[in-house]
Structures are given as C-alpha cells and as structure tokens.
C-alpha cells in the first residue's frame, strides 16, 4: 500500500475536519494515510483514526489578539511561523525516507512538501482577504501554492459556489483542481431533540471570549441547548442551567447526529463549518471571528444570498436567533464523494 502523508494546519479544527473525508477516500482506494500535525488538530485526527500512524510537527503558534487587529498579530508572529515552516520541512524530508512516502497532502501547512514526491496543497483561499493588503497577501499565498504539484480547492467553479471570490483567481503558475465541497457528515432525517446547537472552534483568546458571552446570555434561556465548546480537553465543564448540555468536543459520528437532531445551529462562519452545515441542510446563525476577513466575508455573502443571518460578536444577542426564520437555510451542494482519479498523481511513485 502506498503511503500518503496528510497534515492539516492547527488553526481551529476546520482544517483537520475537512481532511477526514480525504483520509477515508485514501483508505477506500487502498492507500495508507500517515497523519502529521500539532495541537488539537492532530489530536482530533488521532481520535478519529486511532489505527493510523501519526507524527508531531512544530506548531505555528497562531493566536488572535483580544482586539480585532489580527493582521498586526500575524505580522509579529511571522518569524515564529517561518521558523516552524523550516523545521517541518526538515521533518517531512526525513519522513519521506523513513516511511517510504508516495505523496503528501498539506492543508495550509507551508513546509509540508517535498521535491522527491508529488505534493498537494489544500485551500479554498486562492485570494487571502486582508483589507487594504489583500493583493499582497493573495500574491504571497499564491507564491507558496506554486511550489506544490497541485492545489486542491474544496469547492466547485460555479457562480453559486460556497467560497465565492476566495477561490476565483487567474494564475497560470498554479495547477488548481476544484474537487467539490467536502464534508465528513451525512444527512439523516432525525427527530429534533434540541432547539439550539452551539459549536465553537478557532484559536484563543477569541474562542473563550465568545464562549463567556454566550454562557452569560444562556442563563436565562428556556431553549433546549447543546453547547460544544470545541476544545479537546478534560477540564471541568461550566454549569449554566438544566436546559443546557455542555461538552468539550464531539467526534464526527456524535456531532453528526447532534446536528441532525437540532433545529438551529449557532457557529463561526469558518469555511469547513459552512461545508458541513450545507451538507446537512441546516438553519444557521453565524458569528464571524472578529478581525478574520475571510469569515466576515463568508458570513456577509451567506446573508446577502438570504441563506444565513449573522451578527458581529460584540453586537450579538440571543434574541437575534429569531432572524433564522426569515432565511432559507442551506441546501446540499456538497460533493457526494471524491473522484478516485484524484489520487492518480500518487501512483507515479
């Protein structure tokens, strides 16, 4: 069996969760996936696929500031990120020989590639939105992507796709393949048991800031609510009231069932979350991460298309969830399955 290294960025759990259907497709096509990463992203994949070999990569240590100035925070973090990229490149070179790898799939990890074997980069952000520096950040990202043999975009090329302007670019140096939107979930026609499901994720401290805000507002609600904190930890859970069930995290099967059993989902407007909720055809309310231009763009796009309402984090009030009834919600536009021919480039090694 040919071995394929698959490594998601540890920035929230979205990069890891959208790798799950790819890992399953690799196994179904008689490849042996090897996992690599750091933090919660790697831990989640290890829990989903305990039978697979996994390796630790250096952390990029990406954190948000308490203010909305994410650009400045990322700029100041560049030396640490570049150091981690250099370290992971050396580790990957060693893994190519040690494991006899036939290919690499990197989800937004810049140094997870090799000139010796086919290397694929996964992203929906061919354009990286960053306000008045969008043209610069987009060109920088495209330069990184050009070093890979292929770039897989988890979306379609049609006008009504999920990623909108994020994936629209003309650059002949990029070997781009639109592979269809990805989701680890399947829609089930289940009896609704929960009025509201809250799913949090993303880097600190913004995840905790939103959690604290929501917990205060939930004290007075009579909605039957499930609150998934999005942290892989065993720390003690907060207590709110008898209507609220709080868990640190859920693995795919349990979360799939809970989403199917919920009337409304409240979540960040991360792209992987959008793909999952589109697959399950859910009614949703979005709160984009402050200062993250991509999530703000996606939330605004879904609102303009009358699919999902949103509110900025500082403005959100629980009563705003009533807006959901005025929106059509998601329709399933997600890929039914990956084309087995997608992996043909790995057969060369």
Quick summary:
With 349 residues, the chain is α/β, with parallel strands linked by helices.
Describe this structure in words.
It is a single chain. With about 350 residues, the protein is α/β, with parallel strands linked by helices. The protein has two domains: about 1-180 and about 335-349, 3-Layer(aba) Sandwich (Rossmann fold); about 195-325, Glycogen Phosphorylase B (Rossmann fold). Helices cover about 30% and strands about 15% of the residues. It is built from nine helices and twelve strands. It has helices spanning about 15, 20-30, 40-50, 70-100, 135-145, 205-220, 250-260, 270-280, 295-305; strands at about 1-10, 30-35, 55, 100-105, 120, 150-155, 175-180, 195-200, 225-230, 245, 260-265, 285. It is globular. The mean pLDDT is about 90.
């Amino acid at each position: 069996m040919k071995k394929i290294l698959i490594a998601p960025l540890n920035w929230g759990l979205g990069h890891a969760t959208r790798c799950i259907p790819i890992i399953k497709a690799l196994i179904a096509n008689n490849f042996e996936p090897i996992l690599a990463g750091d933090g919660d992203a790697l831990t989640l994949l290890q829990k989903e696929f305990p039978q697979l070999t996994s390796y630790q990569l250096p952390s990029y240590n990406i954190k948000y500031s308490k203010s909305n100035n994410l650009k400045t925070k990322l700029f100041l973090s560049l030396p640490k990120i570049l150091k981690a990229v250099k370290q992971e490149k050396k580790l990957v070179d060693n893994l190519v020989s040690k494991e006899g790898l036939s290919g690499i799939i990197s989800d937004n990890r810049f140094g997870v590639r090799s000139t010796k074997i086919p290397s694929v980069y996964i992203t929906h952000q061919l354009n990286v939105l960053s306000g008045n520096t969008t043209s610069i950040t987009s060109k920088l990202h495209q330069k990184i992507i050009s070093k890979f043999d292929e770039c897989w975009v988890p979306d379609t090329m049609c006008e009504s796709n999920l990623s909108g302007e994020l994936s629209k670019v003309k650059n002949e140096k990029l070997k781009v393949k639109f592979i269809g939107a990805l989701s680890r979930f399947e829609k089930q026609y289940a009896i609704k048991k929960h009025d509201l499901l809250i799913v949090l994720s993303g880097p600190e401290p913004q995840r905790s800031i939103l959690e604290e805000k929501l917990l205060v507002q939930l004290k007075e609600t009579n909605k039957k609510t499930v609150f998934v904190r999005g942290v892989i930890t065993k720390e003690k859970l907060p207590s709110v009231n008898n209507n609220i069930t709080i868990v640190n995290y859920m693995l795919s099967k349990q979360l799939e069932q809970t989403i199917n059993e919920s009337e409304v989902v409240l979540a960040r407007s991360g792209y992987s979350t959008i793909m999952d909720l589109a697959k399950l055809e859910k009614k949703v309310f979005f709160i984009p991460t402050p200062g993250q231009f991509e999530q703000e763009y996606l939330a605004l796009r879904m609102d303009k298309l009358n699919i999902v309402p949103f509110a900025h984090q500082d403005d959100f009030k629980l009563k705003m969830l009533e807006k959901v009834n005025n929106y059509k919600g998601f329709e399933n536009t997600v890929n039914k399955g990956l084309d087995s021919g997608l992996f043909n480039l790995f057969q060369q090694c």
